[in-house]
Amino acid sequence: MNPHVTLLSVPGLGHLIPILELAKRIVAFGSIDASLLVLNTDASPAQSRLLSSTILPKGLNVVDIPSVEITSFVDEQTDIITRTSIIVRESLPHIESFITKSARPTVLVLDFFATAALDIAVGNLCIQKNIYFASDAACLAFMMYLPTLDQQVDGEFIHLSEPIQVPGCTPIHVDDLLNPVRDRNVDEYKWFLYHASRFPMADGILINTCQDLEPISLKALRENPILQQIPMPCVYPVGPLIHMDKPLVQSKNECMTWLDNQPYESVLLVSFGSGGTLSTEQVTELAWGLELSQQRFIWVVRKPTQANTSGTYFTVGAEQNNPYDYLPDGFMSRIKDMGLMVPSWAPQVEILAHKSTGGFLSHCGWNSTLESVLHGVPIIAWPLYAEQKMNAAMLVEELGVAVKPIVEKGEVVVRREEIERVVRLVMKAKEENVLRERVEEMKRRCLIALDEGGSSYNSLSQVIEKWKTSCIVENVSDDGESYV
Fold it and tell me: Is this structure's pTM higher than 0.90?
């Protein structure tokens, strides 16, 4: 009997989408089925719409885990990692109940912020424990090494005078450090370190990247002798996996109709992901910069927030948003012939796949990064939170598929003149744009990796065969006889 694969997501589209796509790819290999457990606590309306509009392949079942009460542990100021980790912790009885009732050999595949559920994988029913890392290999290597850094470094990482060196990897500039490790005295850091310290408990780590996209970091994770002492679970690059489904109801979206009438590769998509928000001042500067560039654009615009760059992470799809309330006076009328404003949400993958799209001003979340690369669209890197600054540095410095606006020393706002400059740089004619050539080549390599016989295809095939082999376990019947 083949095992049943139970995957556990956490709230947030940036985590749900990649693990949903992994689940679909697992069952596509055949002779194995899967259940995706979805935590309903703090689920956004956009998450519900995604699940209801997704066509599930035969063999994949989505299971709603009931909401749990967390108000005694969190408040409005609680950060994303802490809130997510508490939701997982309080949901463990429901998760364990589902696995126990299935009464089948079970492979667990857990989101990397759900490592508390690794403790469930005991006894004969849970035969393999795996983590799905829905970000990049450089970030994974950093997290694997973080418990060591935590012991070695005194004070704050951001006060170090030299870049942080993870063995075998590209050094991390202090300014590009992940947000969760910038203050070691807060709950966010403590939870981040907690998850990182539990990675060695896993039998394997599946990661949403491929060999050609991150050869340096993947080689370090496989071979570096210092990292191997942690110890290092086997790492399986199985990506890049992105959401490619067409909606169940085929209605022509306004922005898709608008794109149909634009010239080839002439439109810049401006979007900061499902959770990203800007300050009032930055929204104003971005509006002016886009207008000054005189380039066509679609802007997925959100109501500004003053202090929180992840302001809609748990509420995307529910926010009230009227761009006339906060954009510069007269902006909407002045740009009506060259720009389209889309409040809150747009079909990002469809836009990136459209022939008229020629650039992407992005927060550099890993999902958005992969979506842009897989559609051959160069990037203006505008990171906001989480690991996005590390992603942006890799896209600019290693892959050469992105440019990053320059922020003046002592400033936190990107000024309109700089926005105008980078927009014009990315949206130049194709024959002059080296960025396009590089991202097209990376697109080609990523698609080869995913295809049958490619590196990511073979990697996932290898781990599935390992799961099946582990399922051939010795059990004991009621009369005391052993059987397989």
Answer: yes
